[in-house]
Design goal:
There is one protein chain. The protein has about 190 residues and is of the alpha/beta class. It has a single domain, classed as NADH:ubiquinone oxidoreductase Nqo5 subunit (Beta Polymerase, domain 2), CATH 3.30.460. The protein is built from five helices and seven strands. The longest helix is centred in the N-terminal third of the chain and has 12 residues. It is extended and about 60 Å long.
């Protein structure tokens, strides 16, 4: 089944509020958070889709748009895959847990909960996984302040890529084997 056929089948089974896109031969299906658990269950249980292998789940900080929760599913028998994605608001990030559908999702949800602060409703044991006890904050959020930047100034500039005080920029380095633009291409011919 091609990615387009997979996406069309999911829309057929789940309804018009589900959309899909094929990018670089990969299928991404966008699902409203209210249909998240249903969508994953349908993808697993439909015999034509047979996306019964849970590969991974992660979070993405989309800043003002909230957080995206992404799950990658694979069909071992049919050898096709799909990314299912939903978006939760930044103010109260909560999504139904996939642990009842795929028990292996429990570890990934705990990590996403700890790193982004997304609550997985119905998770059997949602507790911190990687960070030390008493750690304050969610380190993979884009608004998380890195302690090393507070304690010690970034060497040479406030942030990578920003210059300070009008200092001249560094000389641009070309990768080995790449000639100067004046030696080849449109600049060399004077056109």
């Amino acid at each position: 089944m091609s990615p387009g056929e997979l996406g069309a089948r999911l829309v057929e089974l789940l309804g018009e509020d589900v959309t899909y896109a094929e990018t670089f031969g990969e299928l991404t299906v966008d699902v409203p958070v209210s249909r998240w658990l249903d969508a994953v269950r349908v993808a697993r249980d439909d015999p034509e889709l047979d996306l019964s292998y849970f590969d991974w789940l992660c979070g993405v900080d989309a800043l003002d748009d909230g957080f995206e929760i992404v799950v990658h599913l694979w069909s071992v028998a049919r050898r096709h895959r799909a990314l299912l994605r939903t978006r939760v608001p930044r103010a109260e990030p909560a999504v139904p847990s996939l642990a009842p559908v795929f028990p292996g999702a429990g570890w990934h949800e705990r990590e996403t909960y700890e790193m982004f602060g997304v609550v997985f409703v119905g998770h059997p044991d949602l507790k911190p996984l990687l960070l030390p006890d008493g750690f304050d904050g969610h380190p993979l959020r884009k608004d998380f302040v890195l302690a090393s930047r507070v304690a010690k100034e970034w060497p040479g500039a406030r942030e990578p890529g920003e210059s300070r005080g009008g200092a001249p920029p560094r000389r641009r380095m070309r990768p080995p084997g790449v000639p100067d633009p004046g030696e080849w291409g449109p600049e060399a011919s004077g056109a």
